[in-house]
Amino acid sequence: MRVNVTINGESRQADDVWEGESLLYVLRERLGLPGSKNACEQGECGSCTVYLDEVPVCSCLVAAGQVEGREVRTVEGLADGDKLDRVQQSFVDAGAVQCGFCTPGLVVAAHDLLNRVENPADEEIREALAGNLCRCTGYEKILDAVRLAATRGETA
Asked: In angstroms, rounded to a whole number, what is the distance separating the alpha carbons of residues 151 and 153?
């Protein structure tokens, strides 16, 4: 089947998509958007989190056919050209990146939180990021990055 979808504001098509193929596979392997990571393929780690119609989802759990005619925003789509979104820049500035495998999902989850809550409390940050696993940082730098992003104003 052919899937027509708007990704990061651009109309895209993926051909020869099989019925069981995930959105994650289409993004990474068919459309060349490697930002979302393929880790658990069970929705447990959050590394593949993207926006689907502005709602964060684990793209490994979304069948590609479900995105027909819808809008997807990946971690690549948060930046404005070469200018990183405040959440992305805050992860860099706070040193919240080690191996970087979990970072795209954490950035999207934090971005969503800051769109909903201007200055979240630590408990709100922890709850928002609870579905994203990191094996490297111990989460303190990640929390610092979200706090820093909150001080930097609105997300895009």
From this structure: 6
Measured between alpha carbons, how far is 82 from 62 in angstroms, rounded to an integer? 29
From residue 148, give the alpha-carbon distance in Å to each of 34, 58, 123, 129, 142.
Answer: 26, 25, 16, 15, 10
Query: Tokens standing for 18?
Result: 């099989």
Burial 101-133 (b: 16+ CB within 10 A, else e): bbbbbbbbbbbbbbeeeeebeeeebeebbebbb
Q: For the domain 86-153, what is the CATH code?
A: 1.10.150.120
- pLDDT the model gives residue 98: 83
Give the CATH fold of the 3-77 domain: Ubiquitin-like (UB roll) (3.10.20)
pLDDT digits (tens, 9 = 90+) for 46-85: 999 999 999 999 999 999 999 999 999 999 999 999 999 9
Give the pTM: 0.94
The residues facing 46 across adjacent strands are none
Residues 92-124 pLDDT 10s: 999 998 888 899 999 999 999 999 999 999 999
Contacts of 156 (CB under 8 A, 6+ apart): 78, 80, 85, 86
What backbone torsions phi and psi does residue 47 show, to the nearest 5 degrees? -65, -20
Q: How many residues comprise the chain?
A: 156
